[in-house]
Specification:
By secondary structure, this protein is mainly alpha-helical. The protein has 7 helices and 3 strands; from the N terminus they run βααββααααα. A 3-stranded antiparallel sheet has the order 1-3-2.
């Protein structure tokens, strides 16, 4: 066999993907092996395809769908859609990061709520219903955040 070609297993290991994933990319027409041995079904990839697989891996890491990756790799997108896809991904990542930042702030807000609550000191003495209401008040921070925003808006 030609020394310039790599078996599917070698290329899969090199990129940290499964053979199944490479077969899926082949099935979807994203990247096809340059040679398939008809006798045993071995798939071979060329050195040039390593760059394509590198690009594919990067796009996958950025959570582009296989359909989006195919469009990008085939160059079948006009300049504007090619710019639109990464911009949409960037906005989606920003939204994800904003959500993560909010969730990171929540435990601190919960701690503050518990520390300032006189009732929290007497939780063991409360009925289940009273505890449920207290916990909802201290843990459900959406209401607290909304109240703070509303309060700030009213005082502007």
């Amino acid at each position: 066999m030609n020394n310039d070609l790599m078996l599917i297993g070698e290329i899969a290991e090199f990129f940290g993907v499964s053979r199944k994933a490479l077969r899926l990319y082949e099935e979807k027409g994203i990247i096809k092996p340059v040679k398939v041995d008809t006798a045993n079904g071995d798939r071979y990839y060329s050195a040039e395809q390593v760059q394509q697989l590198k690009a594919l891996s990067e796009l996958k890491a950025l959570v582009f769908s296989t359909d989006e990756i195919k469009m990008i790799m085939e160059g079948k997108t006009a300049k504007a859609p090619l710019l639109d896809m990464p911009e949409k991904k960037r906005r989606a990542w920003q939204e994800t990061m904003n959500c993560a930042r909010y969730k990171e702030e929540c435990p601190g807000e919960m701690i503050k709520n518990v520390q300032v609550s006189q009732a929290a000191q007497k939780m063991t003495e409360m009925t289940e219903e009273e505890r449920a209401w207290l916990l909802a008040k201290m843990v459900c921070l959406e209401d607290v955040r909304a109240q703070k925003v509303l309060s700030e808006a009213l005082w502007l």
